[in-house]
Amino acid sequence: MSKSSLDSFKCRTTLSAGGKTYTYYSLAAAEKNGLDGISALPFSMKVLLENLLRMEDGRSVSKSDIVSIKDWLVNRGKEEREIAYRPARVLMQDFTGVPAVVDLAAMRDAMVNLGGDPKRINPLVPVDLVIDHSVIVNFFGNNAAFGKNVEEEYKQNQERYRFLKWGQNAFDNFRVVPPGTGICHQVNLEYLSQTVWTRTEGGETIAYPDTCVGTDSHTTMVNGLGVLAWGVGGIEAEAAMLGQPVSMLIPEVIGFKLTGKMNEGITATDLVLTVTQMLRKKGVVGKFVEFFGPGLDHLSLADRATIGNMAPEYGATCGFFPVDSETIAYLDETGRTPDRIALVEEYSKAQGMWRHAGTADPVFTDVLELDISTVLPSLAGPKRPQDRVLLSDTKSGFLTALEGEFKKPGEARKRVPVENSSFDLGHGDVTIAAITSCTNTSNPSVLIAAGLLARNAVKKGLTSKPWVKTSLAPGSQVVEGYLKAADLQKDLDALGFNLVGFGCTTCIGNSGPLQEDISEAINKNDLVAGAVISGNRNFEGRVNPDVKANYLASPPLVVAYAIAGSLQIDLTTEPLGTGSDGRPVYLKDIWPSNQEIATFIRENVTKKMFQEKYADVFKGDENWQKIAVPAGETYAWDDRSTYVQNPPYFVGMEREPSPITDIEKARILGLFLDSITTDHISPAGSIKEASPAGFYLRDHQVRPADFNQYGTRRGNHQVMMRGTFANIRIKNQMIPGIEGGVTIHEPSGEQMPMYDAAMRYKDEGVPLVVFAGKEYGTGSSRDWAAKGTALLGIRAVIAESFERIHRSNLVGMGVVPLVFGEGVSWKSLGLTGKEIVTIQGLAEGLQPRQILTAEITCANGDVTEVPLVCRIDTLEELEYFRNGGILQYVLRGLAA
After folding, report:
1. Which of 305, 445, 679, 860 is the most exposed place for a label (fewest CB within 10 A)?
2. Where is the Aconitase/3-isopropylmalate dehydratase large subunit alpha/beta/alpha domain (predicted)?
């Protein structure tokens, strides 16, 4: 992150804050010296502009690149222009972080093989990895659950944690936050983020905006703190760590004007689900969203972070909030140093990055508007976060889905006995109620609301239904502190919402198994069981394999549904249950007032609490401290390990890349419909015994009880290749009516798992392609969805449209993403999967977004030619593709 060698706009100057002097690149000076009008830019674009001014070197960043940001005021992002962006730091969680560190370790080995120095492979910007995705809710509903889940987590993940501790010692600029601390995004919000970053170079301290890319799509949560951050694939993050710029197109910026304030009984979750639905309808994939307007005066920092968090769900690159007095108050409340707080305020004001109420609005590409006072209580479900449904319509919405989506007409009243229990089960019964995930656990207002609702329910004599698996997994230890301080944890405990761990849990698929008899009743009778979680992801097959109808809701509604026990109850008109006095109790009887929530927050969420919980954040508990760490600059791979293996990306790699070849006579591995998520492509949840990954683990003497999750085994390519397209809910349209990762091998016509077919095609020397519909790759920034695709031998994915991160990841693994022309799809072409596909134009003269032609030969010999847009979007991406992937490109550059 060396300082700019050029300063075309004479803007390098100094600033005083808190008695210290900082060097910075002044936007006001740049405006006077040739960049006229830039003060009208959106705040997020000002951050990009500062980045280019500071990094101008005449090579990766030119004067014309900088001028293109000024030109944005005219073209508003409609003209495609590539820039090289360098974030201040990188954030990782362990599911995506472990494979990234595996890749770095493999690159060190490859560097040795190329005759280079392994120490060249080292993060050049600060990297923080927070272990938060490995805790599973195996135990719940009592005060022993937390300790038992931690014990099980360490037992299952010793190899991974030993590997990460090695990385912490072997690599510079790399810190690990141990398990049990919190969710990476909340730790980022409460501790790691500084809003304005500093770096000492040549005896001077340079100040610049805190910017970040993360290997989790919800890295956008810190957009609420004025930090420009978004999720990238692990592959792209590794390149950023190694000093490569993030290649990006200058985005459109959609302004989202907020007016008014939330009414009584409305939560930040209700607001964010409304915003998500509006932005999904608008279509903001690949665009920045920036929030502005007088409504911001009435949103807490935690509310803003909740909205920023859901950017992947509304499809945007980020959901940015500018710095203002609320930002400063939050930095103070969470224990940032007075020097840093003074710098943030002075820097933001000097740069025109401070939001002043009443000043002219920035220029935007387009604007949406929402009066916050019109927001109503909401959930989202049963399958997608953008499918918002009013609380008052949830019952009718579920019954409609039961008949249509789940194909159970006339079964609304069906109930079946549960063995060894005193209750029966029916469609829509809530079997999981989880307060989980970064969306809401950063927000004291909804967690205090949940605690107060629990207290009021317990007073009335209400209990959770016995078939509900209840859990509380806060985003940080601070939450545990203030719930105890407010004396609300005991009431949550009384309803079964005992602390189960500090981590992502249910939202990532770590919900743990349902009680065996309940699971058997659901599966034997094909029940559509329900889950209500306070998370941000409710894709099918993600939350729990036994649960089909998944709804997102605020923490207090999660508690309410645990008490009601069914999605077939209208909580706005029907009672939750019967109180100890024999009278019906309604939701409105126990819902806390806004004033009561605010008072509890003021009295119980303190600066001292943040300072104490983060005082020694990298130390870890005694379990972490006891892990023995191997030494050495390169990792001592263990061939017997089923968690960490040296991946094959660099096998036989030469200093110069081989020429790209066209795709000749490829077979089709899968035909997919719209909204195929990265969960469908590379599941994070449980590994089935009768699956290619299950067979591999059993062959390596791993008991099914110790299979763990796919997410925890991402350091082993052998497991992850076998897990690619292995989601239990994925539907390959080559075999209509069948769920799960199966395909037809051609020309034999045999049905088999997709992994087995891919390996058979590999032995036969046959390349593969996949066809899909709209929004292919929606969801988490999961690099294994691209890595697995590449390792299966898939050369191209042909879709109607791609989600941003997955498209980038495919290119980063040397797989070409191709898009049909408007109105064309594999369905309109009548494909069945028996066809042979040839794609020419890759081998010579390939350019970004070039039109290529696919020659599709049907089984009867008929040939159709189809034009496709090559979604390699930039020249930088083209270089990655030519090298076989981004890691190979970086490694060759460092070896040279």
Report:
1. 860
2. 78-565
- Would you call the peptide bond into 747 cis, given omega within 30 degrees of 0 as the criterion? yes
Reduce the DSSP state of residue 91 to 3 states and report it: strand
In b/e form, how buried is each residue of 635-649, taking b as 16+ CB within 10 angstroms?
A: beeeeebbbbbbbeb
**Are the beta carbons of 508 and 476 closer than 8 angstroms?**
no
Of the candidates 323, 375, 360, which has an alpha carbon nearest to the alpha carbon of residue 345? 323
The number of beta carbons lying within 10 Å of the beta carbon of residue 688 is 18
Of the given ranges (263-267, 353-357, 773-777, 874-878), which has the lowest mean pLDDT?
874-878
Q: Please list, in sequence order, all residues whose beta carbon lies within 8 angstroms of the beta carbon of residue 869, skipping any fewer than 6 positions away.
A: 818, 819, 821, 849, 850, 851, 852
Three-state DSSP string of 261-307: CCCCCCCHHHHHHHHHHHHHHHCCCCCEEEEECHHHHHCCHHHHHHH
Count of beta carbons in the 10 Å neighbourhood of residue 290? 22
- Residue 607's CB is within 10 A of a number of other CB atoms, namely 12
The pLDDT tens digits of the residues spanning 356-397 come to 988 899 999 999 999 999 999 999 999 999 999 999 999 999
Per-residue pLDDT of 753-809, as tens digits, reads 999 999 999 999 999 999 999 999 997 757 899 999 999 999 999 999 998 889 988
Structural tokens at position 209? 């905006």
What DSSP state is assigned to residue 411? -
Q: Is the pLDDT of residue 4 over 80?
A: no
Closest of 421, 402, 491, 416 to residue 449, by C-alpha: 491
In angstroms, rounded to a whole number, what is the distance separating the alpha carbons of residues 688 and 365?
Answer: 47
* Residue-wise pLDDT tens digits, 674-699: 999 999 999 988 899 999 999 999 99
Lateral strand order in the sheet of 288-292: 318-320, 288-292, 253-259, 366-371
Contact assessment for residue 849 and residue 838, using Cβ atoms and an 8 Å cutoff: no
On the 0-12 / 13-18 / 19+ scale of CB atoms within 10 A, 155 is exposed
Q: Cα(854)–Cα(222) distance, rounded to whole angstroms?
A: 42
Q: Report DSSP letters for 756-799, one per residue.
A: HHHHHHHHTT--EEEE--SSBTBSS--HHHHHHHHHTTEEEEEE
Closest by CA position to 569, among listed 590, 584, 554, 548: 584
Domains of the chain: 89-267+292-359 (3.30.499.10), 378-613 (3.30.499.10), 651-682+724-895 (3.20.19.10)
Q: In angstroms, rounded to a whole number, what is the distance separating the alpha carbons of residues 212 and 127?
A: 10
Instruction: Please state, in angstroms and rounded to a whole number, the distance separating the CA atoms of residues 364 and 77.
Output: 9
Nearest to 852 by CA among 872, 833, 875, 834: 872
Average pLDDT, the chain: 95
Q: Helix crossing, 594-604 with 444-460: angle to 10°?
A: 110
Alpha-carbon distances of 74 from 41, 42, 70, 163, rounded to whole Å: 11, 13, 8, 50
* Those residues with Cβ within 8 angstroms of residue 701's Cβ, 6 or more apart along the chain or in another chain: none
Beta bridge partners of 289: 254, 319
Q: Which tokens go with 157?
A: 């993940």
Helices 555-564 & 444-460 angle (0-180, nearest 10): 30
Nearest to 103 by CA among 649, 784, 875: 649
CB atoms within 10 A of CB 326: 22
Phi, psi (deg, nearest 5) at residue 748: -70, -30
Q: Cα–Cα distances in Å, from 481 out to 24, 447, 884?
A: 39, 12, 49
- For 422, list phi and psi in degrees, rounded to 5: -100, 15
- Reference 346, options 163, 251, 207; nearest CA is 207
Its pTM stands at 0.88
